[in-house]
Amino acid sequence: MILRTSVLLLILLVFPHVSIAEQGKVTLRYSLQDEMVRIVLQSEKKEMIRKAKVHSSYTLVRVDFPDDFKLSAPQTTGSFEYTRRGKNLFLNIRGLKWIKLLRLNSPPRLVIDAYLKSGIDKKPPDRKTPPEIKGLLPVLPVPENKAEGTIEKLISTIVLDPGHGGYDLGIYTRSYSEKSIDLKVAKSLRYKLRKKRKKVFLTRRYDRYKSLMARILYARKKSPDLILSLHMSSSNHVAIYTCPPKQLHGAERYLLSNAQTVHVDESRLIAGKISSAIMQDLNIGVFFRELDIPILSYADSPAILIELPNAEFFDYSGKNIELLVNSIMEGLLAYEKG
User: Is residue 162 scored above 70 in pLDDT?
Assistant: First the structure.
């Protein structure tokens, strides 16, 4: 009897310490950046960040972690309030408009960019991939050595790249997510293109995460005539990105990251045709920017990235998606005709 009591007492003493040791630690940091609050949640356990689910409703953001955790955070923040309850962390952010999420691996971090209502009329800070509209050109310069209307060009194989996916949400609010809209538009565009007897491939067909390099290698494997990446802007404009021209020397021309160089002129021509169709059919402003980003620079074929209007300004109903897709189609067909 004494032995059993001793064993039971030992278990009661040991188990609380074991559970605390196994409990994950989450560190909260934040910063203010031009009408935006950036909240960083960091943990030494990768699963805590990878499997965390984020929900947004009005001024409240709820982060559901897979396990219980210990929270390390500043006592006061000023711009928002936080509360931990079990496996959940609640963030009460005053004046919240929308949030954008980013998960980083080394160290494991969940980055929540909370854009505030006071910044509606201002452009949010630059997004990492793809960049936000900033310093865009009002018109796309046509290459001087290209004479339009002289050569008929055929785009027979196309790779569509719907941005984000899985735990990479892109722009996210309680009413919409960028990753879902990107995929809807891509699938609708694929359907239309296939009716025109085009071969069309999607870098992702479902709501799953796919790394940037996996998308690039998949696209190159298909040897397409065009790579078209779809994302969403934070404004009411359409933004079209192409790679800037480069002067390559020596071994630089053999680098994979410079593969787009020989296709820049064609990429700009395709972008110009699509922009004309969108402005004419939908009366939406279209802006251009030349930017050296991997999904474009690594492409061994013409490649463009289109940022669609933000869902706060454009209704992504089935009918409107069809109108948008038809405009992109018109631009591609106009390019083929020369």
Answer: yes
